[in-house]
């Protein structure tokens, strides 16, 4: 199978009970500048990388975005330490104090909550799992969270394979 590297991120925006998540694929070393600019345009303050380290973080840091590297095995449930850091970041990001330190030592000033971006390699495995867990913790019924994440994976597959017909309207979008 041939791999397809997009120049710009394909963004899935998930908003629920005052929390805004962006699920995306991973940038490559040659596309990280574009990804960082797009995240900055969307007012992302934190990027959670749950896959292996494939790009430099400096382009994100240069636009004021913190990258948290919380890798865990593809196809597995996030370990407790990662879930603890994830929930702490979300609490601080959306409800907490203005000055915070995340579990990996990154300090941040969260004046206005914007989206928190999460990515794995393709954007439909580990990253959506973290978002689904957060949605369930926020009170979304488990089945609804699972169906939402499955629909995201399905839509992503259709986008990548180019199988959308012109009349279909989806929330997932490739940014211009």
TrEMBL record:
SUPFAM superfamilies found in the cross-reference section: (Phosphotyrosine protein) phosphatases II (SSF52799)
Protein name: TYR_PHOSPHATASE_2 domain-containing protein
Domain Tyrosine specific protein phosphatases residues, every copy: 92-151
PROSITE patterns: TYR_PHOSPHATASE_2 (PS50056)
